[in-house]
Amino acid sequence: MYSQLRLLFDNFTLILISVVALASFFPAYGQGAVIFDVITGLAIALLFFMHGAKLSREAIIAGATHWRLHLLVFGCTFVMFPLLGLVSKPLLLPLLGMPLFIGVLYMCALPGTVQSAIAFTSIARGNVPAAICSASASSLIGIVLTPVLLKLLLDADGGSASSTLEAIKKISLQLLLPFVVGHLMRPLIGKWMDRNRKWLRSVDQSSILLVVYTAFSASVIGGLWQTVPPKSLAILTVVCVVLLAIILFLTTWMARKFGFNKEDEITIVFGGSKKSLATGVPMAQVLFTGAAIGPALLPIMIFHQIQLMACAFIANRYAQRPETPEEKISLQKA
């Protein structure tokens, strides 16, 4: 399972890079850009409808009582991460420039991942029900909280982001409404969704790729690669590595400091250290406009691949620990 998960993510990353290259050399413009904008809007609605329909209420209830764990994960995702981005401004702004630094702040304000956080927790033999609850809640809360956090992190006149209330209104209509409708329809389509998770994942990823192409097309036409040279991309990659290393250390340290067991520690590490590309890409379409979208997306796209490689290694290390007596009993019953 570990090798299959790595292969899947590597393939998607290669396709993602190819889509960025395609948008760089053959961007959509004119009437084509208008058509892609309409298709992208429908793809985003479908993406969040599917997220809502896949959300299991039973799994949420099973993990929801572990409030200390969820509080720590949310604190890492929506407090500690944004603060790290904010305090790094004196160092990062001269190195990256304002467009990419806003992208770093945007990444720091995003919710955690759902699918990969749960998958890595499962591989590492962590608390999977709590991971499902925490990751799903983070994704849902982030739809509203991310634009608020981004506005707080930016100056009063606020870079390229829309006004907070307007952004929340747009996000509620384009992301939250399809999510809620999808979840309300789960009793009718949930079993079909569960049976077809494999090819629905392809639909999920195709929607992200379409949004990336549309977003980068607009940015390339607006002069993206003139404002973001290769040196800045190299520095941004190092920044993402350092941010991830800091957050992985802090989540591990706090989980042990507050007395959580190993299974809960795993859930906290993978839940509190990850940022969602699946949420970040469509949300950027709402929060940013024109040429600002590309620089806003570059940090989360780079961070996404780094977090997958690092967490795959960490999950494998966790999985190699000896089985507990409770795990042995559970395996015998199975």
TrEMBL record:
Position of the signal peptide: none
Keyword Transmembrane attached: yes
Gene Ontology CC terms, in alphabetical order: plasma membrane
Membrane-spanning segments: 7-26, 32-49, 69-88, 100-121, 128-150, 210-228, 234-255, 276-294
Pfam families, per the entry: SBF_like (PF13593)
Keywords, comma-separated and alphabetical: Membrane, Transmembrane, Transmembrane helix
Identification of the protein by name: Bile acid:sodium symporter
